[in-house]
Amino acid sequence: MAKNFALIVGASGEIGQTISRKLAEAGWSLYLHYASNERFVKLLLDDLTLAYPAQEFILVQANLLEVEAVEHMAASIFSLKAVVFSQGHSLFKGLEDTSAQDIRQLFQVHIEHPMLLLAQLASKLRVHDSASIVFIGSIWGETGASYESAYSAAKGAQHAFVKAYAKEVALQHINVNAVAPGFIDTNMNAHVKGDERQMLLDEIPMGVFGLTADVANTVAFLVSNQARYITGQIIRVNGGWYI
Fold first, then answer.
1. Closest by alpha carbon to 127, among 81, 159, 177?
2. Residue 172 near residue 229, CB atoms below 8 Å
3. Which of 212, 206, 195 is nearest to 241 (CA)?
4. How many Å is the Cα radius of gyration of the chain?
5. Any idea of the CA torsion for 161, 12, 74, 30, to the nearest 10 degrees?
6. Residue 194 pLDDT > 90
7. Nearest to 155 by CA among 185, 114, 191, 193
8. Which residues in the chain belong to E strands, given as ranges?
């Protein structure tokens, strides 16, 4: 039986690792991309290889701040049925303190280089009867966040791309969607502490922060056959914080 391969961009991050484990559990073979967290991704590779010996798990190293990374990644990937973009970094700065380089790097990592990568991978996706692309967007890409204007803009661009590209490749049976998490309890949100953290918690109708598993479960659904008629959507995973 042929193996189904998914590329997890940003597999070494907390959300990326959880997505990788969830998709491996569902039977996927994986390309595990990382930029610099080699130790974490190798531990992930070892765990998955041991747990799922009938599947394949392949490391792909590339820094998405470098345009050469796109060519390198595309050349490293052969059979491909799904791509999940879970890479990226946030930026907590007022706009007056945000440099041109800050903005450039956010857009390169979150939108510019992923778009260029998809342009090279599309032919590998469309050979299948169905294929999937999922971006991990953000609540801030929809509603915006004070002191995260540049980050919100990059995530908003991701959401806009999802809606446009979904139309472009629909007849090729490629679904394109985004998951827009609210506050997920990860190290990326560790800068939110004390009273500020409690204030955010008070705003969430469910009264709890999200887990990486909440994001991974949604991704697993979107790349499954159960989501075959869903495309161009921004799926909110935020406990009712933004509706």
1. 81
2. no
3. 206
4. 17
5. -100
6. no
7. 114
8. 5-9, 29-34, 57-61, 82-85, 131-136, 174-181, 234-237
pLDDT at residue 188 is higher than 90: no
Tokens of 2: 């042929």
Q: Can you tell me whether residue 221 is helix, strand or coil?
A: helix
Q: Are 135 and 179 in contact (CB under 8 A)?
A: yes
CATH superfamily ID and name for 5-237: NAD(P)-binding Rossmann-like Domain (3.40.50.720)
Q: Residue 36 has what DSSP assignment?
A: S
198's enclosing H/E stretch is helix 194-203
The CA distances from residue 239 to 75, 107, 144, 194, 211, in Å, are 39, 27, 17, 20, 11
How many whole angstroms separate alpha carbon 117 and alpha carbon 111? 10
Number of residues in the chain: 243
Q: What is the pLDDT of residues 129-139, one digit of tens each?
A: 999 999 999 99
* 34: number of Cβ within 10 Å: 25
Which residues are CB-contacts of 118 (< 8 A; sequence separation ≥ 6)? 83, 133, 165
Which sequence positions are flagged as catalytic?
151
Tell me the pLDDT band of 197, cut-offs 50, 70 and 90: confident
What six digits make up the tokens of 226? 């159960």
Give the domain ranges of the chain: 5-237
